Amino acid sequence: MNTGFLTIYWRDMLRFVRFRALLFSSLVQPALWLAFFGIAMSNNFERLTATMPVVPDVRTVGYLTFIGAGVIAMTTLFTSLFGGTVLLFDKNWGLMRETLSSPLPRIHVIIGIGLSGMTKSFIQAAVIMGFGLLLGVEFFEGYTLVQILYSLVGIMVFVGTFSLGFLFLSAAIAITMESPEGMQAVITLLTMPFFFTSNALYPVDSFPPVLRALSTINPLTHLVSGIRYFAIGSDFSAIGIRYTYTQEGILLSYFALLAFAGIMFFIARWRFTKVTVT
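-> structure tokens emitted (278 positions)
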């Protein structure tokens, strides 16, 4: 079995660890985002929903807990979309030419970058969850140790599948673009629609019909739903709205992420077979 992709994976992880500024900012930034934006928005939403009736016999969670899953998903989205940037720098510095001219199959470059980006997403998700618990995010409330471990595995499966899909998309964009500025513009253009048509920050029930339809096919919506199901529960209320998740619905969300990752993988593979680096 050819394990050349592990070389690509290890090289990218070494670069991630050795660049201390990158490592520090990638871990601290989402935690600070949750601390400042989450707490500020939580206070505003708690004030707005204070007069709303409480749903009887249903656990009520604060907005900070509600947005905690959204911050994990948002960070995974940003990290994954920018994960392919390393390929663009390798191409501009001549390193990609050497890699593609080696006996290493091109598909291993895609897999290696995908696995390294997925590992980074796991680390960031763990940091956000740990920091969120310190801030008062009510994840895993009333769970047994076995349930916590099961939920952590479920969250990481969702995060990993989602990150792979967007890493493959990022790799396809990176191998096509010629400048970091152009890639940044494309990624920024993609990020906003995915983020603001999802349920990461607010309910989608009050969206206009077109945006509500877009949210149902948005991979970020499926990721947030999966995280909330495992971290908060299958039945809870937040911001005056009751949320009910079923196992069938969560499985459907996961298969949607899996299908998205598969499609992006084939697109990235197609772009790598067509690219010529001089």
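The two ends are 30 Å apart (CA to CA).
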